[in-house]
Amino acid sequence: MKTLVIKLFIFFVLVYTTISLFSLFAREELDPDNYLATTIDKHARLNSMESPKIIFVGDSSLAFGLDAKTIEGALQRPTSNMGLHAALGLEFTFKEIGDTINKNDVVFLSFHYYPNDMDINQGVICHTLDFYPRLKQRIVTNPLDGLRLDLICKIKRIRRYIVNRRASLVPNEGESLVVEGSLEVFSYARSSFTEYGDVRDSLYKTSEINFEGASQDMNIVSQWKTIREIQVFSKHVQSHGASIYFVFPPYPKSKYEYNSEFIEKFADMLRKNTDMNILGSPMSFTFSDDSFFNSDYHLTSFGKKEYTKRIIGLLKSSFEAQVR
Amino acid sequence: MLFNSFSYLLFFPTVVTLFFWLPHRYRWLLLLLASCFFYMSFIPAYIFILLCLIVVDYVLAIWMEGLDGIKKKQVLIGGIVLTCVPLFIFKYFNFFNSNIAGLANVLHWNYSIESLHWILPIGLSFHTFQSLSYLIEVYWGKQKAERHLGIFSVYVMFFPQLVAGPIERPGNLLHQFYKKHEFVYERVVSGLKLIVWGLFKKVVIANQIAKMVDGVYSDPHGVGAISLVVATIFFAFQIYCDFSGYSDMAIGSARVMGFHLMKNFDRPYFSQSISEFWRRWHISLFGWFRDYIYIPLGGSRVSPFRWCINILVVFLISGLWHGANWTFVIWGGMQGIFIIASRCTEKIRNAIYKYTRLFQMTRTKAIIKITFTFSLVCFSWIFFRANSIADALYVVGNIFGGFMKTIRSFPDIHADMFRQLLLGRSFMEFVVVIVSVALMLGVEFLERKKDIVEELAYRRWWVRWIVYYGFVLWILFFGVFDKSPFIYFQF
């Protein structure tokens, strides 16, 4: 057994050294205007806000769907929209804000339907960490985890260099979207975000999106894990004396009708297995298909106003009393 | 816990180290605890269903052993029913319920039983079949009822094969838990090599292809005929590498600890007929169907008509075993029809071989037969992979209709053809998949004569190390280590 262990150890060192050397060679220059670089600004805002504050945690459905400034005005509390990218996964999304929560803060969760480990793209995580390396301290919980992440990021860098150098890690990057009232073109970039962490206003539907197609079945086993992850985060938030709410993501009406069985099943799992305050129902956050501009969770400016209005409306009844 | 996960990378060496460190008399306990831990990493509460199944089968087998005649048969039937209850509730209830509801709607009946929103316990079909195998073998008197509840529990729950097989017979596996397994360097290394080979199939081929195929089959209406053809062929390799990769990792993991699990795949895509394909694909399941359904029904020693019925029954059940959906039933039925058609056309085909002198050209004949068999298998995979029958029919229609259209308009659309061929991935990713599949097929082709891995063991140390080093780097650089579950876990 000793011989085997020694041989495996030598082999591991050899492979690790090779990967480290290759990854130095495969390093690419970082674009400061990259969509993922927005994480720097989002964290700068989050770290500078005084408690009690409001934090929206989630994916791009929040980045494109929320008007944090309007919410801040309506609820009179500093508000930050941390939503960025579904491929970061729930674990990363939760860990990155984990230790910034203080007493009396309010955390809102919102993400696309049936999030699971399959959404996670380690390449996106590594690229985000390239922009904001300080996040590693929050993400990595033990040395083994650190070694694993380091190895994964090095491998991802090499792989990207060999097979997919020109591809973007952000879906739709480079897509042209006409901005209202000008000939300006919207792009998936850091400069397209406001100081609140929202994608700036004036996005209008520019092409037809086909919301029909195969029913999006959910992998119920992975959902069980998702629910557990959410519940752990909910407990974490509450242990800091903060409160936590769940808001359903914006969703096209036609697609909801198509997938209502699974969506309601997911909502039911959330209600039964977590102790968060859940605002409304999936149905109450459906919008006409025209309210989405390039995907089924990305709202146009009109949709964004409507979504924010509905959230504020629901908050008035369940949250306002607590705020005052 | 997936075999290709970081958790397994920590779990497995820990279990192996403890296994060889512990005295023999405690090893079953370690394996039982490890198996419970492994299973509970999916949905912890479901361990109770599994434990109930174990206790029921344990008690019934001992009871049955002391009985004779009709009483023994009654206990067996009771055991089979009780063992199958969780499978029916979790896997088939909604399927039958929705079909009855559909029928009731047509016939204007009042039927309002709600569907169950329960999560299917992982690998339920596998350990149900393994338990049934034990009960039937005890009934037939081929296997003595196991008195040691702990050992019997490990037989049902042995973690390498708990969630996706191979479905072991008690005669092969049970006695191995009593045997003392020493640390044998060569055997352990051979097991590790098999795990790495399985990992290659899963993360480099299956996971990479999954990204391509999923995009096409999630919305087949949005892609062209070439993409449909390529995605269907790729799916054939995806499902093979996914499942046989899992089996290799399961067999390799067991081998490291000294246990011998049966071979589950034997180079199926080199089969020259559909019946040969089913002798080489998921061997443990189809051996199960052969021994416990096909042969008791009379097998091939019946009239031709009855034989056709037997074949259809076996394959329709096999389809339903794979999933509670009509697409799987149709897929199973197609396999049965292919085998029946193959038997019916045997004389005609032999006449053609004779007329065209293909009998003399063994290699050409073999290539033609392999290609034809592979095409039939790919055709049936369409129904297996499609989300609905309507989608499957659309794919079939467009493959045949659209492909001819594409060929006719070739000069105008060759650029688009290339884009369709890549299934939305980069050229290099496509090349990586092709090279990896070619490597796997090449190794399998050479393995019909000799075991390549064993052959490698006789080479000089630096040759071996270069091969291992290159292979591991290939897996790390080109593998997709996301958390894609194994396809067969859902069955």
Helices and strands in order, then pairings?
The complex is a heterodimer of chains A (324) and B (491).
Chain A: H1 2-25, H2 38-48, E1 54-58, H3 60-65, H4 68-75, E2 79-81, H5 89-97, E3 106-110, H6 122-131, H7 136-139, H8 143-163, E4 177-178, E5 185-186, H9 220-239, E6 243-247, E7 251-252, H10 253-273, E8 277-279, E9 286-287, E10 292-295, E11 298-299, H11 301-318, H12 320-323
Parallel strand pairs in A: 1-2, 1-3, 3-6, 6-8, 7-9
Antiparallel strand pairs in A: 4-5, 10-11
Helix pairs in contact in A: 1-8, 6-8, 9-10
Chain B: H1 6-21, H2 24-40, H3 47-65, H4 69-106, H5 124-140, H6 149-157, H7 170-173, H8 185-218, H9 225-256, H10 274-280, H11 283-294, H12 304-322, H13 326-344, H14 346-355, H15 362-385, H16 389-408, H17 410-421, H18 427-446, H19 452-457, H20 461-478
Number of domains of chain A: 2
Which stretches of chain B of 5+ consecutive residues score pLDDT under 50? none
In what order do the strands lie side by side in the largest sheet of chain A?
2-1-3-6-8
Number of helices in the DSSP assignment of chain A? 12
Highest CATH level, the class of the largest domain in chain A:
Alpha Beta
Q: Please identify, by name, the CATH architecture of the largest domain in chain A.
A: 3-Layer(aba) Sandwich
Largest interface: A-B, 37 and 38 residues
Query: How would you classify the helix and strand content of chain A by structural class?
Result: alpha/beta
Shape of chain A: globular
As a percent range, the share of strand residues of chain B is under 5%
Task: Determine the mean pLDDT of chain A.
Answer: 81
CATH homologous superfamily assignment of the largest domain in chain A: SGNH hydrolase
**Oligomeric state of this protein:** heterodimer
Number of separate domains of chain B: 2
Helix content of chain B: over 70%
Please state the overall shape of chain B, judged from the principal axes of the Cα atoms: globular
Overall SS class of chain B: mainly alpha
In whole angstroms, the N-to-C terminal distance of chain B is 16 Å
Main sheet: strands, sense, barrel of chain A: 5 strands, parallel
Instruction: Write down the overall mean pLDDT of chain B.
Output: 86
